[in-house]
## 1
Amino acid sequence: MELSERKQKILRAVVEEYIASAEPVGSKTVLRRSGLACSPATVRSELADLDREGYLEQPHTSAGRVPTAKGYRLYVNELMRERELTHEETEAITSKLRGNSVRPETLMEEIGHMATELTSYPALTISSPTKATVKRFDLIYLDPNSFIIVLLLSSDGVKNKLVRLPFSFTENTIKRLSAVFNSSFTGIPEEQITPELINSTERAVGDTMGLTSVIAGFVIETLTTSHSGGANVSGEANLLKLPEFKDPDKAHKLINYLSDSKNLRALTGQGEYGDVRVLIGPENAALELRDSSVVLASYNAGDGMRGLIGVVGPTRMDYSAVAAKLGFIAEGLSRLLGGGSAPPSGFGKLMIKGDDRDV
Amino acid sequence: MELSERKQKILRAVVEEYIASAEPVGSKTVLRRSGLACSPATVRSELADLDREGYLEQPHTSAGRVPTAKGYRLYVNELMRERELTHEETEAITSKLRGNSVRPETLMEEIGHMATELTSYPALTISSPTKATVKRFDLIYLDPNSFIIVLLLSSDGVKNKLVRLPFSFTENTIKRLSAVFNSSFTGIPEEQITPELINSTERAVGDTMGLTSVIAGFVIETLTTSHSGGANVSGEANLLKLPEFKDPDKAHKLINYLSDSKNLRALTGQGEYGDVRVLIGPENAALELRDSSVVLASYNAGDGMRGLIGVVGPTRMDYSAVAAKLGFIAEGLSRLLGGGSAPPSGFGKLMIKGDDRDV
DNA sequence: TTTAGCACTCCAACTTTCCGAGTGCTAAGC
DNA sequence: GCTTAGCACTCGGAAAGTTGGAGTGCTAAA
């Protein structure tokens, strides 16, 4: 059922006013904000309708109206005006991305901080799990007791480890190991590194000291840990400034929930990069997020990997500004990390996608 | 001036009761807790004395007593009974340290989590800055446009970078570069890597493509970033459960302060590893910490580096348990990271050191 | 020096009062 | 039929008032 234009205007006014003030919105305020040419009484009857239809609700009789999740949903899907970023904002983001000399360990953390700063909500970043393989294998001989393992992964990440052992070996052994590993452990996914493969490699090299299994162990560890993507949060303290979290216990529960990266990874969903997903209150699967909203933008992290950057806040969130900012960051990240691959058409136009589940 | 034994017992009872209950402590409660054989009236007059001498204070007339910073200080220095860790606690710590396959990137973070869990206060870890040098230098040739730089640092950390350039070079060039760098860039601190050195290296190799400066740039970056030690916090949300942080604003300020690693690094002080430092309320230099306490244990991170692990909490903190736990963790870490070097005598006996500044 | 007794203080929790913003309803007007 | 002015009503929340109990300091006697 379609809402009349006037109802839409009123709903928009209520949502935007509530987002700004966190106070229930009354008929007079709606009038002031929407600029409609009618009386408060008319607005009141319209408000009562929107209330009946489930878009608004009253904290108690004789209070103003507050949007419901359904109301926010309609607002986000149809009523929200696209927020243009100011030049300062785009500049801040692009310069940050450019300026960063791409130290992959800290990049996502810094991006998270930037998102927090820009939106003043806690920000989270999630790197999708990858099916990495080893692209190139090297051992660097140091001395009779130690060598370095260097792995170049299919994602172009480089991992290494210094191995120091209580017995000695020759440079030649290391060279031979390096060659054998380079031919038999490259290009295969983690699950194909079976005990049999390790055994046969061991025999092929004539290794009697267990070097092979040490090295294979590192390969497996590297592939599995790079497999489960990383996740982090920043700016949790910002929640405390919001009136909806004046109860420390509420804040505590949410922050706790966010601080477990397992929970964050559960937010990973399907969707093309370029999407901005908005999950409003009860649309969230997790109980702890049921009266908060999450906005997630996904980016192309190169090599077919997707990553997410998002923020968490009260349902009363400035969706349009947040979505625009996150979308822009994700776009920049895709350019930075995604390499040559062209972004999907419409990238940057910001496609807001909601959850498909019934509410 | 020495306190009479009875006064000491009373002070201890007040501190310990207040730590446990967070409520001002009255004369009857002191009596119950201390087991002294006298009447409440006697205790009252003693309390009044301790009040006059600055060890205790009253939130208001006709309330019980609360320890002052001076009171806590005396308690920590002289009155506190050493807390023995239970077998479960020591077991939890040692097994965690043993179980950890020492992935240096995440080790300190995990240790921080452990400290939070054990003490239920926010935990922080700080790795001291190092003067690292390059111990060994390698370039791995991949294809005409790319190679990997591998640096073995004096701290035995290994750093690497994949370099991909828009022009091509031969495997031989890379080999030559590797040899030259390995001889001229190893063993020297960052400040000796001057433009002159880079220029002369460039000439020596006959490099006209700028490869030398790319590589030198990475070396410098690595040495300077490993130079400024890392810091991190975990478990900030735990503050919210404490009555002293029921005001979200207070919690917000403190959490914000802690989330800036610059501020954390400012906590680094002198002292041998093996020390446990306790900073009580106003003893803290930072304004934001003035009504909180910080307990810091330092550990030997090997190679002459020191690291800190600590927790932040209200002045009403269970100092003896916290100090014991942190001390034990630091001890374990020292053994894990500090390698062969023997711990200073008395390690594990837990030397509590206060701040030397006047209060 | 200790202790019992007592008057006094003051917070915290609970009620009560009061105000105003905002509603829904009704009846008149366009 | 939609809109609007008028009006009685509701309800939360701030302000003010009330009460009880825990705890104190002082005094005088043991």
Note: Chain B touches chain A through 33 residues (CB under 8 Å).
## 2
Amino acid sequence: MNNGQIAQVLDSIGELLEFKDENPFKVRAYHNAARAIESLTVDLADVCRDKKLGDIPGIGKAMEEKITELITTGKLGFYEELRKEIPEGVVAMVSIPSFGPKKARVVWKELGITTIADLRKACQENKLSGLKGFGEKTQQKILKGIEFHEQHVGQYLLNDAMPVAKSLIAWLEASKTVHRVSIAGSLRRWKETVRDIDLLASATDAAKVMDVFVKAPGVAEVIGRGDTKTSVRLASGMQVDLRVVTDPQFPYALAYFTGSKEHNVAIRQVAQKQGLKVNEYGITRGSTLIECKDEVEFYKALGLPYVPPEMRENTGELDPKKFPQLIDYKSLKGVFHTHSTWSDGTAEIEAMAEKARSMGLRYMGLSDHSKAAAYANGMDEARLAKQMKEIDRLNKKWKDFRILKGLECDILPSGDLDLSPDILGQLEFVIGSIHSRFDMPEKEMTERVCKAIANEHFDILGHATGRLLLSREGYKLDLGRVLEAAKQHRKIVELNAYPNRLDLDWIHCRRAKDLGVMMSINPDAHSTSDLENIEYGIATARRAWLEEKDVLNTRDLDEVLEILNG
DNA sequence: GCCGTTTTCGGCCCGACTGTTTTCAGTCG
């Protein structure tokens, strides 16, 4: 059982305990422990063997026992019992908006409802209105919530949400009703998927801002409206929350509404120890406000270095000793993993190169598909040889830019690379990727990938888990072993910046960094505009605390070639 | 269930909004 699975069990226990009306602090303890494990960069099984579980903050005696049971037996009696006690369908009900564990428990205990379908039926038959705390409006709200739940997974990719948020910001700014306005919430932290869009504005007349906001293009429904908070649903189904505060309150509110929730809790604990109180309106000592004009001052007032939003996940960012020199959005000097019309890209090589050059990049590694990717018009040896000549011709064009000859080479089920060693040896780099036989058992898949990594012509492991966000699980793979192999053979692992991949994810990137495995932030561009995806990759790298030194393509060309040849 | 530079017991972050309520519980972030 790996760290992720153990964290999942503890999270699940926390959730189940809520249905039992358990002490909310006990519930939180389970979620905290899960969070602590999730961000761990070592294998919990090793920590357990060394009897060091108790050293992990958030893990005490009870957690230690449960984790040990999970690791040694693969099961946990306490968890099994809980699951038997609370029907799965009842747990599933909390994915209905504004329907939480307390309400779920009431309909289950009072009316014996254990599925969302039954819940809908009960609402339609007006059976809920008699229950304590339930009225006509609640019933209607639940029906609406179920409808929404069925239409949407309720999650959106970063690249779907970000442009919408930016256009709403522009709308509010254009109205001249706001002083300052910003994206907040998980979107500002660049979480890979988001549930909604959070916006924060400062203004002298909040009501005016709300008036403008509900008239924004795309608003289909006003879900709620108060003096300081308004929620709307867009025609796309996306929910947008807007909070309005006074301008002096803006920095505190921005910190607060950016979250994460766990980061905020940790911030307040830090504040409390210094006799300070933090809320969205200020930092106060007694009745005295500590003035901050922006977030930098906010953190300073608490004696902390400024924590960029991407890092605010309560995984150690409040410990100044651990603070990294984060990679910047302008740190990349070149990119790898780009496609052209030679395989399944939509743009000519030259257009891709010109776009990369216009973005201020100095080199672009071209890596069209190899022949096993027939669906993508993959190249055989002969076409690849021809493409190399074409690149030589194009490279005469620029003094300040170069296209590198590469290939996204299929890793065959055997673990061999798709094209002959002879032609691979002529390339400047080779990305190895899995595009077939996703269904292999974990052990075989791990061996397949590790064998490819050991191949002398292999340089970069492409989208290591193969997951597609919101649509496909990754293939089964022992990432720990894969990263070890990359380290041993001094190979590079990709952080694929394509917004529905972001693979490796931030947690595993951080693990790679801690192991000393070099990463490369790659756009996996199939069009010129896809090159801009590197922004999502850099954001993910920042979430993983990566520094420039951890990333291949922050380096100048000559150094990059040295690393690839070495 | 975790934690401790006043503590091994008694705390544990804080507030807005909604719908149901005459003072509050649940949900959300």
Note: Chain A is about 45% helix and 15% strand.
